[in-house]
Design the sequence.
């Protein structure tokens, strides 16, 4: 956001040899389609192969097959490899950093107090929302620039 | 009015304390009148009383107006959104149109089932987010009413570029009914409609904590979100890691999706931003050129004035003193 970024941007934009293409050149298109179609062919081949294998598998015990299917589904879910949100970890680190230690201290103390009061007879007369606010504000503030450097 | 009443009160005050008035009078004209000396005790009493009144009035003012009374608790106010360094908010930056494309995908796949975006027509996507063909294909996926035909019947036709995005519900009542009585607001202008703009939306979408802090009471059917004023929001967390699959292969983490959809919503609310910034650049360029020209013109016009030489050539005289 700095001043020099602006200057370099302006210079880049003003140089006559700088070009920006909205779309990729057209020649690539046929190549891409062929690549895709070959991929598709390959996948259909794989499918047919799988289909051929399936009847053989079906001949086995049905109970075992069901189990297998379940396992397969689970595996598939795992295989997808859900991306992990960097925000959580960054903010966790920030919460435990020295910068946020006062806020965290107050929050932890409050949670302890309130949970103790909740289990007692009178019930809790306060909540930890404000303490939570301070801690959350500190953590997100601290993680914000780091998060933006990771996200696209 | 105020001045006059002040004057009157000082006069009344002076009548009460004649001594004090005499003191001031004397101080003002001590040299001329040279009256009898006042006792230092009365002087001290007057000074102390004046100081006490001054201090008292300050204290009274503070008592009346000093402390601000907040009608809302912090929880009712909601957590102030954290500022994120949005690239498109910089002076000389445009929207990241790849991000807009991703954000539109998130809107379509996630938010569109509850939120309308009714001020955005398909044509506005052309060239900014989609290609013409993509936008046309998208428009044709939905059906719209035709004008009444010869028999007065209204038929359905596939959408055109000039149509606006369809709403998920027929009307607000249907939307409320489907969402436990809470109306999902139209998102076309939401970035402009909320304090904190992009920061608020991003924080709202990513700010659902794992569990509400101890002791917080969350109403039935509501979810705890610190950024929503009142902290109880009817919209549950909607974004989870890997919810959508981006065509450009960007990992679809919660915060990535939230960032993209927020930027997209900012575009929806402010589609003229890129143009506006370009206009601003033009203004700067033109004015700087004009300024440079004016400097040259000034130099040209003033050259003769600045370079002339004024010489005083005294008349030749003899050195004898003159008598008038």
Sequence:
């Amino acid at each position: 956001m700095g001043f020099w970024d602006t200057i370099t941007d302006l210079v880049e934009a003003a140089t006559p040899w700088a070009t920006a293409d909205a779309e990729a050149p057209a020649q690539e298109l046929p190549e891409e389609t062929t690549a895709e179609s070959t991929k598709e062919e390959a996948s259909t081949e794989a499918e047919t192969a799988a289909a051929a294998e399936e009847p053989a598998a079906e001949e086995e015990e049905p109970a075992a097959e069901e189990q297998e299917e379940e396992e397969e589904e689970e595996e598939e879910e795992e295989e997808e490899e859900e991306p992990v949100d960097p925000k959580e970890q960054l903010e966790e680190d920030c919460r435990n950093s020295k910068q946020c230690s006062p806020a965290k201290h107050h929050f932890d103390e409050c949670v302890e107090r309130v949970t103790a009061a909740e289990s007692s007879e009178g019930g809790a007369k306060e909540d930890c929302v404000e303490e939570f606010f301070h801690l959350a504000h500190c953590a997100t503030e601290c993680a914000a620039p780091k998060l933006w450097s990771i996200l696209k | 009015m105020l001045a006059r009443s002040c004057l009157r009160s000082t006069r009344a005050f002076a009548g009460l304390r004649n001594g004090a008035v005499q003191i001031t009078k004397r101080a003002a004209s001590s040299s001329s009148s040279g009256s009898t000396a006042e006792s230092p005790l009365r002087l001290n009493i007057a000074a102390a009383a004046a100081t006490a009144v001054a201090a008292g009035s300050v204290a009274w003012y503070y008592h009346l107006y000093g402390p601000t009374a907040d009608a809302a608790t912090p929880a009712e106010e909601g957590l102030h959104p954290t500022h994120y360094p949005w690239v498109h908010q910089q002076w000389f930056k445009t929207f990241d149109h790849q991000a807009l494309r991703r954000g539109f995908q998130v809107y379509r796949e996630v938010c569109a089932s509850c939120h309308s975006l009714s001020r955005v027509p398909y044509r506005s996507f052309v060239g900014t987010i989609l290609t013409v063909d993509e936008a046309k294909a998208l428009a044709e996926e939905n059906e719209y009413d035709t004008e009444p035909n010869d028999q007065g019947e209204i038929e359905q036709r596939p959408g055109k570029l000039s149509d606006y995005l369809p709403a998920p519900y027929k009307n607000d009542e249907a939307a409320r009914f489907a969402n436990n009585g809470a109306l999902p607001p139209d998102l076309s202008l939401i970035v402009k409609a909320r304090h904190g703009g992009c920061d608020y939306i991003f924080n709202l979408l990513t700010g659902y904590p794992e569990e509400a802090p101890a002791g917080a009471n969350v109403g039935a059917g509501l979810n705890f979100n610190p950024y929503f004023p009142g902290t109880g929001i009817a919209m549950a967390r909607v974004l989870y890691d890997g919810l959508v699959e981006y065509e450009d292969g960007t990992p679809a983490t919660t915060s990535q999706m939230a960032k993209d959809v927020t930027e997209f919503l900012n575009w929806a609310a402010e589609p003229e931003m890129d143009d506006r910034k370009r206009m601003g650049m033009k203004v700067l360029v033109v004015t700087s050129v004009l300024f440079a020209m004016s400097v040259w013109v000034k130099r040209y016009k003033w050259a003769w004035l600045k370079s002339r030489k004024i010489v005083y050539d005294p008349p030749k005289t003899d050195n004898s003193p003159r008598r008038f």
